[in-house]
Structure formats: structure tokens, C-alpha cells
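explain this.
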Amino acid sequence: MTLRPASEDGDRPRLLVVRNDKLGDFMLAWPALACLKAVDPAPRVSVLVPAYTAPLARQCPWIDEVLIDPGDAGGRAGRRTLLKRLHEARFDALLTLFSTPRIGWLGWRAGIPLRLAPATKWAQLFYNRRIVQRRSRSEKPEYLYNLELAEALLAELGLAVPARPEPPYWPLPEGTRAAQRARIADELGLDDSRPWLFLHPGSGGSAVNLTLERYATLVLGVEARLAAASRPAPAWVLTAGPGEETAADRLRERLVGEGVTAGLLPPRHGLDDFALSLSAADLFIAGSTGPLHIAGCLDRPTAGFYPSRRSATPLRWQTCNAEAHRLAFCPPPGAGERDMKSIDLEAAASRIAGHLGHFPTRETTP
């Protein structure tokens, strides 16, 4: 189906969607937001997000309004200000994708008539519609749990639930990817005709990830397999989050010392500018971090490295790109759930090298 950009028709149902935790979690809410905006007539969708993810929320074509959640650090004054804003907005429904008592209390105090959230913990007491999901069992991808909540909300509102939207959940204007590749080619002196493999070695402080040395081993393995198949050597673009630049540059130096073409993505003008840069990737490699899920939302091919603990499986935190565009690796059965060194990098390098051959470097229209 064709996804429609957000409308500014104020006469349509006014929805508030809350996903106010980490970057990756927010990106996995975009399929649910796309679902809400696929209704005819499309509702007006506002989101409540922390200041950190707000720049990306403003880029989302399925969002009409971005409200900033001051969080617990906002104190009583912050809660009062936010409550006043919610009262004034006169929302018809609240959809909380990740429920906390503070947000449940705010929605109840704001008098939002329909309040829907997962039936988890005592925060559910503030909601008058609760959906049992048992996410801790990790039986479905996170983005699918979010989609199911959006569909349940539409049903409660008496709106026809649309066919599920398909990737990309962040569709970019034509020419955006080409412009980003031209920008990076100029900055790093890269050959635009070669495949570009982006690698994000950082963890954002939350995800279990490979070590820098293990990433170097993976890169060299991919290079060797492409060379053996007489395929062009890729250019590697290393990306880094705040505070991760030094480690990423150490990996760059290690790779350059091995004769690999590798550069460090220059600093960007905010999170939204960084995110757009990822559209230039022919393949994006990372642990289960926010940048991996940005690339997935853009429907770029991805290769993710995950732990195998029940709450953080490759299935639960699957990227939301097309199935043919994603690879996932985790410790084998019998290994420790966080034992990332047990992942077979030889096999991973072979799969990544083979996966790369399926995708053109030039921009195509979805």
C-alpha cells in the first residue's frame, strides 16, 4: 500500500502517541505511526518524546506535532507544564507504547477519554484499554507489538484498520540518498561506484556488541571473500555516537593499516542530519543500537549483532526493513547469552559478503 504523509486537518481525531525511551525503541514505533496515518481520513498524530529523539520525530512523515517530555528530571514543575499542555490539546486518545506510571498518571489527569497501553505492571491502572502482549517472552519483533497496539487503538475508535504498511517506514524524497552519497564522497574522497559498508562499532551504553578487534576481524573477512570472488573492494565508513569517536577512529586506523579503505563519518549537525547520512549506506553493520534501527527504518540492508538473552533476541529487536534486507547474528546455542566472542565471524563475513551482492549502489525508487 502507499503511505500518506501527515495531514494538518484539525477536525480529525487527535491522537497522542508516547514512546519516550531510547532511540532504537522510538525508531521501531514508526511502523505503528505509519499505520495510524494510513487511516482514511487520517487522524492528527502528536508524539511525546524526550528532547534527544525530538529532531528525528520532526523528520517523521507520520507525525503532525512533537511534544517534549521533560522526564523525571523535569520535577513537579515539568509535570505541571506538561499536564497543562495535554489539557489544552484535548486529545481524543492516548496510545502509550512503553508504559510507565508517570505517563499513565498524566494521561488520566489530562482527562484523555480513551487511554490504551500494554497490560504491564501497575501502570496499567491508569488506562481504560489494556492489551495483553507479554513482550518479555520475545515471541515477536518489537515493531510488530507496536503495530498491534496501533491497530487496537483504531478499532477502539471505530476506525477501519488499514492493511499493514510496508517498508520503508521512513520514505525519503527522491534524490536524498544520492545527495548524501555525493556529500560523503566529497568529505572522505570515496569512489561512489564502489559499495559502501557503514559500520557502527559503539553500543550507546545499552547494547552488548562486538569488540573493536572482533569488528576488525569481521571487516578483513568480508574483504577477503569479496576479493576471492573478484568483486570490487568496498569502502568502509565508520560511524560513532557521542563519546564514541575515539574508539571508532582507533578501528579506522587499524583497518587502514591493513590496507582497507576506511574513513570516519565527519560530525553532523544534530541527530537528524546524522540519520540522513545513513541513507548512503549499501549495508549497515552494528550491534542492536539506535543507528541500526535508523538504517532499518530507511530500509537499508542491515547486519545486526545481538546477544541471545530472552529480552534482547534478534527476533524481538529485529530491524523493520524488508526481510530480504536484514541479517542477524547472535551467540550459538550453549554459549553464554552475552558471549559475543562465540559468534562465528567467518560465517558472518561470508553471509555479509554474499548479501552485499544483491543490492545496487545507485538510488532506486521504492
Q: What stands out?
A: Residues 176-356 form a domain with the Rossmann fold fold (CATH 3.40.50.2000). The chain has two domains: 14-156, 176-356.
